[in-house]
Amino acid sequence: MKRLILLILFLYLVLAPLITYSQKPELVVPVGHTDNSISHAFSPDGRYVLTGSMDNTMKLWEVSSGKLLHNFEGHLNPVSSIAFSPDGRFALSGSMDNTMKLWEVSSGRLVHNFYTHSNGVFFNVSSIAFSPDGRYALSGSWDNTMELWEVKSGRFLHIFKGHTQEINIVAFSPDGRYALSGSSDRTLKLWDVSSGNIIRNFEGHSDKVTSMAFSTDGRFVVSGSGDKTLKIWDIDTGKPIHTFYGHTDDVTYVAFSPDGRHILSASAENLFLWEVNSGKLLHTNIKYAGLATSRILWPDVHYDSSSFYRNLKSWQINSERLYRSFQGNSKKIEFVAFSPDGRHILAGSGKEDDNLKIWEVNSGRLIRSFGSNSSEIQSIAISPDSRFALTGLRDSTFKIWDINTGKPIHTFTGHTGRVRSVNFSPNGRYALSGSWDNTMKLWDINTGKPIHTFKGHKDGVNSVAFSPNGRHVLSGSGHDSLKLWDVSSGQLIRSFEQTQISLSQTPIAFSPDGRHILSSSHGGRLKLWDVNSGQLIRSFEGHSNKISSVAFSPNSHYALSGSNDKTLKMWEVNTGKPIHTFSHSGIVTTVCFSPDGRFILSGSWDKTLKIWNVVTGKEIATLIAVDSTDWVVTTPAGLFDASPGAMDLMHYVVNDYTDQNEPWKVIELNQLKQRYYQPGLLPILMGFSQEPLRQVPAFENVNLPPSIQLSLKGEALTVKLINRRGGIGRIAVFINGAEVVDDLRANPQRDVNQNVLTLTLPLTRFANRFDMLNTIRVVAANGANWLNSRPAEIRYRTGGTTRGGIAEKPSSPGVRKTARLRAVVVGTSNVGLHFAHTDAEQIANGLQLAATELLGPTNVSVQRLVTKPGAPPQSTKADIVKALEAAQKTRPEDLFVLHLSGHAINYGGQDGDLYYLTAGATSADASYLTDPAIRQTYALSSQELTQFLNLIPARKKLLILDVCAAGKGAEKLLVAARDIPASQIRALDRLQERTGFYVLAGSAADAVSYEASVYGQGLLTYALLKGLRGAALRREGSEEFVDVEKWLGYAVEQVPLLAKGIGGIQQPFYRGIQNQRSFDVGRVTEEVKAKIRISEPKPVLLVRSFQEETQFDDVLDLKNKVENALNDLIATRGADAPVLTMEAKDYPGAYTLSGRYTLRGEEISVSCKVFRATVAVGEFVVTGTKSKLPELAQSVLTRAQALVKP
């Protein structure tokens, strides 16, 4: 037995750290504080900052990145003061709830509650401080006293009394023997810590003392005051030595420099630097408004302000540059609704800017943010036709909005209290509003006029609803419960009496079958009523707090309730039994069913929307609007889809409190892309997309990548990697955004398990890549090579530049060489494509013209590699490779553009590669690439492309792909058009990350949606050319420039609109470059605009059928012969062809040609009709002979063309 106990103890000691460490990562929503930030403190090592807020919480942030790490919750009132212990392991928070709390920083655990200054009245704990040895704590209060506490035990030691007004600031002397307090009674007092006796009074300020600090040697004190001055005092005499004038507001913070020679002081408007000995003002720095408190980090020369806003800002003193902002932009979800057609989700967020957000279910994206920024939203509703939204507002009005544009259509006025609830009638013609003026009103949507005012409630009307048949309306109020009214007469039918619920909330719902009503009741109960009799049928019990939202399922069989207890519950209506309980981490404010009844949607104060499976009760997805444009969709297993901006804003945190050096480990979404990035995630989860879901292990126990330290010695880079128990995997090195080393490890098998690995990279190998100032970035993966580290960066400045291994003389300081532009433009019209080469030629022409105007003709080289149908190939793989190799002669200051148009196929499964088909390829099916020889000869993979592009030194680089992803099924209708496949997005994303290129890719589902639109070219090319012609130019005075971000951004916006106009879906892939300014690739004059050709929309003609009248068959194959004539016309005239066609049975707005013919020996008579949709636009008869069928087909085409109008 003893041996067994010893064995168990041994295993525990060995495995406990690992068990502790293997904690599930927590997804951190960047919410920031939800009320004003009023206090903060930096950790002694400067790595962390804590902020306290009026929202009663304290938050821990990482200083280097500004990322939120943890929320500390427990105070009942605002957190007004914060302090770190000297060793950084603990933190104290003081609150207006009369308490001080001790927290363990490494775990977030509450250690002690200190019930301070408890005299039955809530006084603010205005200031707290640790003793230098960390054993004691001081708390100052607005009850005019200061208290001393033993930190370890939480024991109260004694009280310091003597001030006649509230204490604003407290501090220990550097040796811990004395305590100092500053008060609104205009004095500072020095106290003996051990006895609690006053030693000395410091008098001289003419207003309250708002800030103070000891010098490092403890001989002096500096104080700031509401009299707009600061004073230096001698500790031994209590006399002022200097008074500093210059501030125009309260001096909210002061600090000595570590050497005691300087003082920094801050007020609401300025930051001043003073010399101690002379009292001279040396520097006036940042000007800003609204400052409440501030902190100064001398080692990093950063000044930080906690203002009466919801964030903390860090400023760099020397440059007056905003260094970091600690904040979050996600908002509480107050309201949510599915559109009746199931295509959109509308979420409302109360009083914030852009407080309405539209999610598109089919794409899984946040597509629009809008709202009434001047007034807080109280309620929302969507019209039955899914086109409009209503919002009830705090300013006594409500608005109707166009969902497609986000524009307000009309404001309804007439209430005298906030509009707490709104709803549409079932036919969409009327609106219902409930207000805190105790009334409900019925409105005509078209005129905006009120029809009825329903009076009878004694309190505010919080909820309103129409019956399914629209004949009755229901209103809910806090005091006198529910009332049912007749719509046509406005008369009260009956009241449903129940105990008072809430003055602010009375959620109600009609069952879709019109038989029942749901309402909330006191104690978290849900009640079911019979509409006809007004009798209570049953109560549903299970919530532990009040109910905030209720809903029926579409079939009326189930009920849903959301509660302040952070849960929502699904109930069986007939029995009252709970079926599922779902949880949020915050109050659940709003719930609803999807229109088809398969899903449940819930919104919460935890700033998330969650979608749940009705049958299984499992969470399907979490939707987060990071800000007005960026968004994230995640699953419990860790899969995610996100906008590019959200990749940087969202992160996971792994807490390992056993690691005191780094207890909070941040994992950014960008680091997880290798395994967990699933583009188009939401439509896949909800069954709107047939794309397969990635099969990966759940994101639970994390093997972290190594940490990285970089240093430069001469012309060598030293990379030090520290294993964080996850192994040391692939180590990639980037110079100016381009990957130059795929894996720096010399021996991966040996190096993967090293505890510390130090590697050296000679930079002379990359001399041709360096500009004057360069950024070297290193990213290391964990041992399994699926989780990358956060990048480590270092700046490298060269004395001169080199090209081709030959050193050049250093450029004069500030003098740069003239940039050159090199472009390789490829277009391959093969395998059914007609216009890819034309697209390439038009882009090449536009680039040549614009770049020449910017850089001059001798500095522009645009190489065209195009393959036309029936012409000798010029875009073979060898041709493209040769051009890319020639581009390696560019210099760092140059610009490089690569444009590819044609076919592209994904091959290799969920982590496969994207292959561009070069001249000579004979099929666009993925099966065509199963032969390695085919891939080697006729396809250029994104992996190969990455390798070539990384060898190009130019720092300003752009890749445009306008490709067709056709394969089997390309002959289907245009409705098959879709967004870029997820596997293709992943391949493009990898390419962009490794090359540092701007990447824009448009991938149509088939040849129809690629080029056979009414534009006769790729939609992406059309949008880019339109942008060059003036729609996306940057104006600078009288000149216009082709700014890359503006140009590409315009195309991203336009392509979906163009695709929608022809009945398809296309959302281009676009990735810019972080932390790099955009650049110009051209200048456009009126003369240049005139030379850039854009195809005008053209009619589409489809040859549908031909038939011999007696045999009911096309015995002469006349249909194919007419189609051949049409294709020959298009191939011959290209973009100038008067009409277009495609291999499709149907096309929106297309003309169709059908005919019947008779045979009399050699003679043929053909009767033809041309239709547009189902309307005949003309008919004609053509005659010919069997021996001249091609001529006959041409005659048919010519006559048909005459009936087809542009």
Automatic annotation (TrEMBL):
Which Pfam families did the record assign? WD40
InterPro entries cross-referenced by the UniProt entry: WD40/YVTN_repeat-like_dom_sf, WD40_PAC1, WD40_repeat_CS, WD40_repeat_dom_sf, WD40_rpt
WD repeat intervals:
30-71, 72-113, 125-159, 160-201, 202-243, 244-284, 326-369, 370-411, 412-453, 454-495, 508-539, 540-581, 581-622
The record lists the membrane-crossing segments as none
Q: Which CDD domains match?
A: WD40
Alphabetically ordered keywords of this record: Repeat, WD repeat
Give the matching SUPFAM superfamilies.
Answer: WD40 repeat-like
Report whether Repeat shows up as a keyword of the record. Answer: yes
Q: Which PANTHER family match?
A: F-BOX AND WD REPEAT DOMAIN CONTAINING 7, WD40 REPEAT PROTEIN
Entry protein name: WD40 repeat protein
Task: Give the species.
Answer: Larkinella humicola
Lineage, uppermost ranks: Bacteria, Pseudomonadati, Bacteroidota, Cytophagia, Cytophagales
